[in-house]
Design brief:
The complex is a heterodimer of chains A (115) and B (111). By secondary structure, chain A is mainly beta. Helix content of chain A is 0%, strand content 52%. In chain A, strands 2, 4, 5, 6, 9, 10 and 11 form a 7-stranded mixed β-sheet that branches. A 4-stranded antiparallel β-sheet of chain A has the order 1-3-8-7, with no helix packed on it. The mean pLDDT of chain A is 93. Chain B is mainly beta and 111 residues long. In chain B, 0% of the residues lie in helices and 55% in strands. Chain B contains no helices and 11 strands. In chain B, the strands form 2 sheets. In chain B, strands 2, 4, 5, 9, 10 and 11 form a 6-stranded mixed β-sheet that branches. A 5-stranded antiparallel β-sheet of chain B has the order 1-3-8-7-6, with no helix packed on it. In chain B, strand 4 and strand 5 (43-49) form a beta hairpin. The chains are: A mainly beta (115), B mainly beta (111). Chain A binds chain B through residues 4, 33, 35, 42-43, 45, 48, 55-56, 58, 90, 92, 97-99, 101, 103-109, and chain B through 31, 33, 35, 40-45, 48, 50, 88, 92, 96-104.
């Protein structure tokens, strides 16, 4: 069974640009969560999508947005990139909403570097 | 906000040694999880704990959910080189329904 797939694996952008990251969950998983991982802040929750609706949101500015499609695939978008947005962006899927004791399965992440 | 204090921050041990790390919080949680992240990969769930006092094993790994519901520890016995990575504890926030991760313990194992 294929795991969580994230594309691209690496990305280099310049300040002010925007970026779209993609995540394909495990087949049968309906929830997709996004996390930002940096050395200084650790793993920070961005948002969670379930049945094409955002169900939970972390403390990130409006430049960070996402969406989920009917096949449960998800994308996240960051507009007007800043140097501090450089991080590993991790996507995780679960069968149900993560609050229902449904374990998260993580992808290998997209490493974004903003120059 | 809710915070998880994980210690130690890093460990350098020799192959064959046992390892112990823990995670504490000022708040009570009903679910404690332990994840491992290998270099260049995403975190992988090792053990999930759902009941205070619960002791659960997964191979050479053993984790316990503290009786006060404010802490958990993870033990690794007879470490091997592939145990290298970052170990994260995580809890499910009961008022936001999102996972909160600890700051991680970086483990290095020398042959």
């Amino acid at each position: 069974k294929a795991g969580v797939t994230q594309t691209p694996r690496y990305l280099i952008k310049t300040r002010g640009q925007q970026v779209t990251l993609s995540c394909s969950p495990i087949s049968g998983h309906r929830s997709v969560s996004w996390y930002q991982q940096t050395p200084g802040q650790g793993l920070q929750f961005l948002f969670e999508y379930f049945s094409e609706t955002q169900r939970n949101k972390g403390n990130f500015p409006g430049r960070f947005s996402g969406r989920q499609f009917s096949n449960s695939r998800s994308e996240m978008n960051v507009s007007t990139l800043e140097l501090g947005d450089s991080a590993l962006y991790l996507c995780a899927s679960s069968r149900e909403l993560s609050g229902n004791n449904s374990p998260l399965h993580f992808g290998n992440g997209t490493r974004l570097t903003v120059t | 906000g809710q915070q998880l204090n994980q210690s130690p921050q890093s460990m350098f041990i020799q192959e064959g040694e046992d390892v112990s790390m823990n995670c504490t919080s000022s708040s009570i949680f009903n679910t404690w999880l332990w994840y491992k992240q290998d270099p260049g990969e995403g975190p992988v769930l090792l053990i999930a704990l759902y009941k205070a006092g619960e002791l659960t094993s997964n191979g050479r790994l053993t984790a316990q959910f503290g009786i006060t519901r404010k802490d958990s520890f993870l033990n690794i016995s007879a470490s091997i080189p592939s145990d290298v990575g970052i170990y994260f504890c995580a809890v499910l926030s009961y008022n936001t329904d999102k996972l909160i991760f600890g700051t991680g313990t970086r483990l290095q194992v020398f042959p």
